[in-house]
Q: What sequence folds into this?
């Protein structure tokens, strides 16, 4: 009898085939086979909302008559929200999981844009909006980075080779954040320069983007096991003992503040110096340098693990060397005021930013245990973001010394940091 017409019952010990569980990669839609990619969409949207304000600083000065000091305050309130987001976000995610905290960060990011769009004429509203944006970016950097790192593990991404898995946890979230920072600033600056409603439209675009990323992020599984039983207090969760780890102090700490100091000089200090030269194109030039700095930073990040292998774990030193060269170029540009030399300095600083960010994050992830990952990542980014205040410090010191001298002084300090990290790598080698 043909097998197609056979009606014989199945043998007693034979059971019909059951459908594969939903966790099987073969039964998922293509994008669901890579849950880390959906999580990265949330980081991308959060970073977009954290930096789309930066190229609009000149707009607020001209259109709403805010002083340079007031604009500096808007930048400072961002950092004031960022640090609590970095530190509290990690502790909350250890208690409640990565996914709900990141989702809250996306909602905060969208809410910040609503406040900024509605309150352009109010300095208080701008401070509140920037503070909310800072909290959301802090959550994205500490909790979101940990989420993507865990989603890059064998359990959620079994197709990844062991060689690539070693670096994916640092490379993937860093790239998502950098692309968000860069494209957010580029799109916002372009809309403000050439589009209608320059103080509203850039934020409306971000709100739509945040809602779209939210629809993707809610589909991502939780990656943090054992989030239901947390007997310790939240205050105890805030303690990160590994912040005193010898390698963290001697290798990560001296390099961390330079990460966002470089980007700040690239898209805040250099455009400020070039504003008298570029005239009416000041906003477009600032936008272009922001995209250039962070775009180069994004381009180099996939190659940092290879650079680290070639230099035997010294990619961070290469990044600091690039910062040194970038500061020398920025100092020279402060004398000649050439938009082209300014762009070269910004490109060097962008390459250094991407290299140092991935290298430092890889160090943190090699030091941290699963329980301390979000907390130590938050500490790392908190220290890194101290460099974001550097443009404000330079603006305050500009009355005592020209920018060329100040930038040369920074180059000397950077060289000292490079020596300190080199010594730390030698003394903490396994």
A:
């Amino acid at each position: 009898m043909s097998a197609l017409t056979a009606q014989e019952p199945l043998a007693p010990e034979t059971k019909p085939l059951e459908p594969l569980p939903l966790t099987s990669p073969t039964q998922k839609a293509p994008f669901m086979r890579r849950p880390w990619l959906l999580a990265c969409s949330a980081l991308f949207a959060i970073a977009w909302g954290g930096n789309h304000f930066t190229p609009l600083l000149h707009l607020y000065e001209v259109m709403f008559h805010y002083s340079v000091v007031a604009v500096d305050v808007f930048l400072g309130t961002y950092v004031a929200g960022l640090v609590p987001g970095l530190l509290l976000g990690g502790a909350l995610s250890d208690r409640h999981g990565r996914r709900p905290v990141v989702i809250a960060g996306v909602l905060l990011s969208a809410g910040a844009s609503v406040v900024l769009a509605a309150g352009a004429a109010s300095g208080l509203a701008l401070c509140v909006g920037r503070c909310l944006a800072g909290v959301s970016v802090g959550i994205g950097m500490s909790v979101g980075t940990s989420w993507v790192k865990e989603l890059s593990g064998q359990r959620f991404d079994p197709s990844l080779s062991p060689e690539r898995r070693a670096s994916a946890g640092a490379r993937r979230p860093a790239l998502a954040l950098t692309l968000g920072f860069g494209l957010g600033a580029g799109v916002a600056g372009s809309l403000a320069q050439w589009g209608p409603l320059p103080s509203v439209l850039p934020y409306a675009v971000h709100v739509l983007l945040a809602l779209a990323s939210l629809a993707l992020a809610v589909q991502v599984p939780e990656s943090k096991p054992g989030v239901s039983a947390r007997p310790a207090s939240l205050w105890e969760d805030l303690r990160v003992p590994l912040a005193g780890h010898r390698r963290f102090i001697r290798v990560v700490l001296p390099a961390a503040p330079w990460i966002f100091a470089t980007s700040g000089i690239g898209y805040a200090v250099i455009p400020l110096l070039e504003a008298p030269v570029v005239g009416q194109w000041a906003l477009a030039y600032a936008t272009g340098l922001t995209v250039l700095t962070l775009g180069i930073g994004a381009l180099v990040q996939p190659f940092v693990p290879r650079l680290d292998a070639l230099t035997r774990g010294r990619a961070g030193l290469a990044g600091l060397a690039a910062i040194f060269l970038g500061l020398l170029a920025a100092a020279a540009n402060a004398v000649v005021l050439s938009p082209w030399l300014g762009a070269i300095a910004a490109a060097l600083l962008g390459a250094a930013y991407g290299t140092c960010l991935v290298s430092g994050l890889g160090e943190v992830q090699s030091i941290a245990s699963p329980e301390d990952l979000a907390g130590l990542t938050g500490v790392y980014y908190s220290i890194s973001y101290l460099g974001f205040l550097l443009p404000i410090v330079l603006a305050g010191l500009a009355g005592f010394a020209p920018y060329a001298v100040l930038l040369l002084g920074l180059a000397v300090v950077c060289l000292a940091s490079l020596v300190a990290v080199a010594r730390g790598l030698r003394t903490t080698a396994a």
Residues 162-194 form the longest helix (33 residues). The chain has 17 helices and no strands. Residues 1-27 have pLDDT under 50 and may be disordered. Residues 99 and 222 are 6 Å apart (CA to CA).
